[in-house]
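Example 3.2
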Amino acid sequence: QVQVVESGGGLVQAGGSLRLSCAASGSIFSIAAMGWYRQAPGKQRELVATIIGGSSTNYADSVKGRFTISMDNAKNTAYLQMNSLKPEDTAVYYCSAEIMSYRGTVPYDYWGQGTQVTVSS
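Structure, written as tokens:
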């Protein structure tokens, strides 16, 4: 089975930095894409950043220039480097991975449990 686990969240002051990690494990044949999403209280879950094919990236306008998504293919792990954090970045951050498992016939989107990021003023 495939598991996706986020880590690295925490409390940071505005202007600070955090790096989130998203580790996929299990019977993984290939990972087509990984992405970071976030959900603040009372708001819809929104896209933060995606990385496709291990190199092609896309960012929400609100984080462009501040956040960087990357992937270590050997470790099946994606990272989200978050710099110049703002209070409005406060949310639960979720990782999603589009994965083809050894036992599967089509890719499936797996989600992690989320990690809390809190940015204080």
